[in-house]
Amino acid sequence: QVQLVESGGGLVQPGGSLRLSCKASGRDFSIYALYWYRQAPGKQRELVASITRRGSTDYLDAVKGRFTISRDNAKNTVYLQMNSLKPEDTAVYSCSAGGVIWGQGTQVTVSS
What we know:
4-stranded antiparallel β-sheet, 11 strands, mainly beta, 7-stranded mixed β-sheet
């Protein structure tokens, strides 16, 4: 069973950057499609980015051109590089393997 642990969240000023990491323990990491979700207070969880087993990616329109998802199967890690951050990007970001295994989430706050 794969377990996921996110890191890299924090407080950043508008226009700044953060890189989130999600490291998996256990076997079979490479067989999963991987996802980054976020949930802001009072809002529904939304899918931010996804990456297939073969590396094809897709993004929420609101983050296209600013966020990049990538995976390193050798390191059992998926990343979310977030640039040009905006206050509306503030949320708890969680990674998921296959949409069925979830990490605990990491807080991202964009504020001056």
